[in-house]
């Protein structure tokens, strides 16, 4: 199994993609240079490893407003059983829609697990692909996003032409 990395330049900064022959395992914004090394440029499309080409192409299409739903082979090894259940619900919150942490907890059959849902959401290894930016506070406020609230706000505005506050769909 080959482990590979590629970088995609986005309007929100550099996105690091990781994966293997099994699928994409991580998509995370590169932290500032103080916290992590930062390549000067994105990986040229012709040099993206085969195992990451679909993720690279689909993320590019997303930022080009040509794609709303990802169809990728995923190979995430991290996470507890509960985190994986939370992450599995995220794609159900469709493009241009939002749901609350409480909505997700109810979807999972445990309305008391709001904080645990929030914590799991914060550990999402596939930002944008598993759209944790679409999860907001019960009163509509923007709360928590591993990539920063400015990025979350930008992503929601980016999808705004069709934004409808609604649970899944």
Automatic annotation (TrEMBL):
Domain of life: Bacteria
One of the GO BP terms on file: methylation
Localization: Cytoplasm
Region forming the signal peptide: none
GO annotation, cellular component aspect: cytoplasm
The reaction(s) this protein catalyses: a 4-O-methyl-thymidine in DNA + L-cysteinyl-[protein] = a thymidine in DNA + S-methyl-L-cysteinyl-[protein]; a 6-O-methyl-2'-deoxyguanosine in DNA + L-cysteinyl-[protein] = S-methyl-L-cysteinyl-[protein] + a 2'-deoxyguanosine in DNA
Gene3D superfamilies for this protein: Methylated DNA-protein cysteine methyltransferase domain, Winged helix-like DNA-binding domain superfamily/Winged helix DNA-binding domain
Active-site residue numbers: 132
Record GO terms (molecular function): methylated-DNA-[protein]-cysteine S-methyltransferase activity
Record keywords, A-Z: Cytoplasm, DNA damage, DNA repair, Methyltransferase, Transferase
Protein task: Involved in the cellular defense against the biological effects of O6-methylguanine (O6-MeG) and O4-methylthymine (O4-MeT) in DNA. Repairs the methylated nucleobase in DNA by stoichiometrically transferring the methyl group to a cysteine residue in the enzyme. This is a suicide reaction: the enzyme is irreversibly inactivated.
Family affiliation: Belongs to the MGMT family.
Name of the protein: Methylated-DNA--protein-cysteine methyltransferase
Organism field: Hymenobacter luteus
